[in-house]
Amino acid sequence: MDARELKASIEASPVRKRAELEKLYLYVTLGDEFRPGMEVYARDAAGYQQYFDALFSDDAMRDTRVWAQWARLAHRKWVDRFEPKLVVQNLRLKSAGIPVEFGSGIFIAPLGSKDTVADFYLFENGAFNTDAAEFVTSIGGTFKCVGYEFVGIYGVYRFHNDVIFEEWDVEKDPVPFE
Predict the structure, then answer these.
(1) Residues 126, 14: Cα–Cα separation, whole Å
(2) What are the tens digits of pLDDT across the range 97-129?
(3) pTM of the model
(4) Collapsing DSSP states into helix, strand and coil, what is residue 104?
(5) Percent of the chain as helix, strand, coil, to the nearest 5
């Protein structure tokens, strides 16, 4: 497939996805040609899905915006492609997110889906592609979440049934509490 065939495939895509796909096309092309290095993903591709899936499967691309935008658009699970500092999986929820306790107050870190089972990931600053997740808010102070006490400032992101904390300014590593 060449760049013109990729463009034709995008033009035949569902209307609701087309604007985002056209942006992705601009990331990988210059005019009617692929940017250097981007043509490799077109070798076995028969359309835009195969092209961007091939790009997504390449770990060398995981820090790029095009990789992140395809992950979001195609709902590809990506968190396990990075190295989290802490993982708590299969959390059973009674609400639409993971509770974060601040003394007598509570904040619900929302999921990106209506699932009742969630996964929690903690990453060091810059250790994952933030463009692949939806930024929710930042939280700071001393608080408890998923059986750990946190002290510091964290970015809070979501992607499907994952809640992701990114360390921004941390006083100490999270410690388990009972």
Answers:
(1) 34
(2) 899 999 888 988 888 777 788 999 999 999 999
(3) 0.88
(4) coil
(5) 30, 40, 30
What confidence tens digit (pLDDT) does each residue in 36-70 have?
Answer: 999 999 999 999 999 999 999 999 999 999 999 99
- Of residues 101, 149, 159, the one with CA closest to residue 128: 159
Q: Which two tokens stand for residue 166?
A: 């990114």
Question: What are 41's two structure tokens?
Answer: 């993903």
Q: What is the maximum alpha-carbon separation in the chain?
A: 60
Q: Which amino acid appears at position 146 of this protein?
A: V
The closest alpha carbon to 153, from 140, 143, 172, belongs to 140
Sole residue written with tokens 């060091």 = 124
Show the tokens assigned to 18.
């087309």
Backbone angles phi, psi at 97, to 5 degrees: 180, -175
CA distance 73 to 71: 6
Residue 44 φ/ψ, nearest 5 degrees: -110, 10
Cα 114 from Cα 102, distance rounded (Å): 24
Q: How many Å apart are CA 38 and CA 121, to the nearest integer?
A: 31
In tens, the pLDDT along 135-162 reads 999 999 999 999 999 999 999 999 988 9
